[in-house]
Amino acid sequence: MWKHLVLAALLAALPAAAAVADTAAPGRWQTIGFKDVGRGVDRDSIGLPGQRRFAQIRLCAVRHPIRLHDFTVRFANDNYQRLPVRRFLEPNHCTRPLDFYGRRHNVDRIWLTYERIGGVGGTPVIYVQAR
Q1: Pairing between strand 66-75 and 125-130?
Q2: Fold (CATH) for 29-130
């Protein structure tokens, strides 16, 4: 009887373990934040609560092109990293993967300075993805 209960508990835990492994799988991008892009040059911050650790981050533009000016990341341990992103980002495209210094980090907040290019056909959105 005891063996059957242990086996049932292990089988019940497998889907949960697989889900955790799937979200933490290296190489798989996760959207960790997004922001609507206002008109002109805009500076925004996005808070990213939680205890998730990442080694890389990227920014993606949706609906309209965006000119990226500045990108700074604050980690949960209060360290900062400024990432080089001064570039024009086409709609439905992302920056190259940007590496964090050292090991994987828990991202607490990011600051973005960007500019909306064009203005017809909906509000542009910038997505923050990490892995």
Answers
A1: unpaired
A2: Jelly Rolls (2.60.120)
